[in-house]
Amino acid sequence: MDNLKNYIADNRERFLNELFELIRIPSISSESSHKPDMYRAAELWKEILLDCGADRAEVMETAGNPVTYAEKIVDPSYPTVLVYGHMDVMPVDPIDLWESDPFEPVIRDGKIYARGADDDKGQSFMHAKAFEYLVKHNLLKCNVKFIIEGEEEIGSEHLPEFCKANRELLKADVILVSDTSMLGPDIPSITTGLRGLAYWEIEVVGPNRDLHSGLYGGAVANPINVLAKMIASATDEDNRITIPGFYDKVQEVSSYEREKMARAPYDEDGYKHKLGLDALSGEKGYSTPERTGIRPTFDICGIWGGYTGEGAKTVLPSKAYAKISTRLVPNQDYLEIAQIVKEHFEKIAPPSVKVSVQYLHGGNAYVCPVEMPAYKAAERAYTKVFGKEPVPVRSGGSIPIISTFEEILGQKSVLMGFGLDTDAIHSPNENYPVEQFLKGIETIAWFYHYFA
Amino acid sequence: MDNLKNYIADNRERFLNELFELIRIPSISSESSHKPDMYRAAELWKEILLDCGADRAEVMETAGNPVTYAEKIVDPSYPTVLVYGHMDVMPVDPIDLWESDPFEPVIRDGKIYARGADDDKGQSFMHAKAFEYLVKHNLLKCNVKFIIEGEEEIGSEHLPEFCKANRELLKADVILVSDTSMLGPDIPSITTGLRGLAYWEIEVVGPNRDLHSGLYGGAVANPINVLAKMIASATDEDNRITIPGFYDKVQEVSSYEREKMARAPYDEDGYKHKLGLDALSGEKGYSTPERTGIRPTFDICGIWGGYTGEGAKTVLPSKAYAKISTRLVPNQDYLEIAQIVKEHFEKIAPPSVKVSVQYLHGGNAYVCPVEMPAYKAAERAYTKVFGKEPVPVRSGGSIPIISTFEEILGQKSVLMGFGLDTDAIHSPNENYPVEQFLKGIETIAWFYHYFA
């Protein structure tokens, strides 16, 4: 492993150029017009993994977007690592807030700016390059399998079916994933918990056409007003969710564990400052790390209805819509929550409108035990590269497939993320520091060394 | 007046073709890209009125869109009628719901389908043709002035200044306006009251960029959730507006007048059926005609924020917006309400977001006394043409400039409207029955006869 640092330094430009080629494919999974780009990305991943040293790689169909599978079986008696990543990215709107083309990566101030630079093209590509190093230098003492999917940003809808159909192919001792963040460039951390997710679209229909708000206003229910009331009623003054049954299965975290969490570095003023906020807001009785780590949420991700153009058009609209998401915590079942929330909104709909709620996707929360050998190997790898032992962190994000892997493949995942809070994933000007990218490759290579 | 009916019948095709030429100009005042169309419409109105017999017509500038002024002074000792109309129209979205091009009028089932067919190109054009008949047959015993403006649909912002600057030019004994409806094709009615209006845009800003709803959700206020709460809190369970001071100056209508209103024809089942509604909804303690006629409203005309595209993007958005309108009733001052509402929303904004409220436009409510000679003349004209005495009706709509005319020019307006409830003004497939158009011309001609 002596020449690892040099190898990475010597191949830096090539690594970046190869990553940029992957980023240039606008593989936005939520927009059906980008379907051909999903196939382009899958084919490119196949080439990448073969070039890096895989014995076998192929693009495999699912009922949705394709999956790229690859493997190198060094010795059947060795332990097997399954690397999971995703080739799909989020939409880019609002496009006018991007300082450069989201699909033409550029490096500014040491950061790669592009959609997918971090999430998850940049992070998953590190695995290819760590693998390349180990194969080339005959240092790989594990079997490695790769599964790169194309539907993570839309809830990995077809991956569970794929896993069920390919249990033997995907058999491994641990799953390795880089799709999370560290607390800071100098504060290595490993995500040991993920929140679950459930997501709905709600439609409120009032009159059968847009009406004149003067002639009808006051006598006909306005779908936007009704939608606002329904949304508003879902949380109370303490920012607790009021939907009956919502908290029933929430795992209450012990005061011992909450005390331990409170010791993790957290700078509230800095946090507010970075977001441009005068005040934070969340569930009463919980700290900010607790609000994002161990408590569920109720967020409106989008809302629309009526006249949204320039100037002052008066109208009593026929329809209003919202996209609603909740983050879930351990023991909440996302399918149960999906049903509870749907039924709640349909039940509280006043008779003056018609409300329909469509469940779109979700997944359960996940917890990784810190005693696991693979976690310990990751811990040593971070310590080696960053010079500090990584902090275990419960993240607020969701990677629904992680809990599904546990259910279907019976394997825990270790979340070796190298993103930073400032990477603006899912936002305009997503970026990924080149330094994190290179250190990530180094850390992953060390993981294999310690894990084997 | 003997040949009036024949004249209208003989010239029917020509009248329609001339109107269609006017309708084909997409004079949408709320969209600045249509500014040149406002000038085209103003020039066409000048030609129309000169052709109909005006002594003088000109396009006059304002600080906004131009105004067409025309006049025929038959004898300075005669009474003078000022005809007011507007050449501008509402936007056409949602465009996909139109069955034919909104700016290419077609006649289907005896109705003219086009944006502006009723509001207000069709209705104001009737005045030109009634005027033409009277001039051509030397029957005009009044002086007539026309003022056709281009900003009615955006609140007539620059017309008050124009009126102040041209008080002498616009001097008249009464103002005549066709921009309202009748209760039905066989139920002639004259609008004797109009609601006022105030309109705002509200902006709620949370974090300085769109955030990952997993990493930040629960700890950072979501501007859409906050906006929904603010809007929801503005009305209570009885659909009364909760903004302090909002009702302070509302004129309570006497039980005598409410009883009289209750005698006007109103078919609740038919009303619901036409709108496709199972139930109506409005302020507790008031009937539907009262809710639209004598009570103020609080309607969200538009709302937007976050992800509104296809599929399930999770995001905690940076901003959310709504367009809010209230309809006002006599004695409420729209500028006072503008301020009260703005201050209220800015005051109740939680510290976790920044809220700004921009007042966009408004006007006061209006009441026309039924004892006025001009009202009596209109009443006789409707009776002559429709065979029934017209019902006086308080409409829920607003024509802000009507109360401004009273304030600046010191003149009451008579609202001789011929629209129908089914005309879908401000909506897709706006239409105007040819029969109403022709009867309107006839009724207006008789008005001059009786008024003189």
UniProtKB/TrEMBL annotation, chains A, B:
Biological process annotations from GO: proteolysis
Enzyme class: hydrolase
Its EC number(s): 3.4.13.-
The UniProt record lists the keyword rRNA processing: no
Domain annotation Peptidase M20 dimerisation: ranges: 192-351
Signal peptide: none
MF terms (GO), sorted A to Z: dipeptidase activity; metal ion binding
Keywords: Dipeptidase, Hydrolase, Metal-binding, Protease
Protein name per its UniProtKB record: Dipeptidase
